[in-house]
Design goal:
Structural class: alpha/beta
Bound molecules: 2-phosphoglycolic acid
Number of helices: 10
Length: 242
Amino acid sequence: MRPLIAGNWKMHLAREAGIKLATEIADGAASVACDLLICPPFPLIYPIAMALDGSDVAIGGQNCHEKREGAYTGDVAAWMLADAGARYVIVGHSERRTYHKETNEEVRLKADAALRAGLVPIVCVGESAEQHAAGQARETIETMLAGSLPERFNGVVAYEPYWAIGTGKIPTPGQAATTHKIVRDKLVSMLGTAGQIIPILYGGSVKASNAKSLLSVPNVNGVLVGGASLSSSEFLGIAAAV
Ligand code: PGA
């Protein structure tokens, strides 16, 4: 499978700066051997989709609501993202689970809504620093996957250990191999052979200088990049490591 390099811009960038960054990434896309995805804040999805029209760089949302429509002030439905030009949506990011108390059940409903809207959901899972220290990574990851993936899931999983997000800490290649194998085995046990071809992204403090070692770990089929995705040279440097 062609690796997926995804950028999560989080709550950064105004329209002009976002279009500039997206355009620089699109200009570099032809020379890399991977799929590129950028996930800007909601108001930038449509203008970037217009600016990148015809480009291979895909656009995604960072969250969606599980319902189709209704009285849900401040929320955005999955189909609205698709209508604005998105092809992917991140669901269950650790920042959503932490700051908005999103549960596995909610994440599952959001992933399901994304699939129904024709979007590719990127379902995030990962253990906290405390769970990591207590040796509970396996049980945490398995429980999150069991609760967060809809039946017949057909999307992407991002394994993002909470202790690696925005901290500069990354797992050793051995640790990443172990956890990504846990994810793969759980996907196969839940989905059968379909679980073998679900892309599993690694996320947490990925940058151009560490991308090559992370991307060479078995069952790491791409990366989800936060901070380093806000620089075109860093982001394209990560893509060049494929
Ligand atoms: P980071 O964030 O690359 O800044 O650690 C990754 C993420 O939150 O998806």
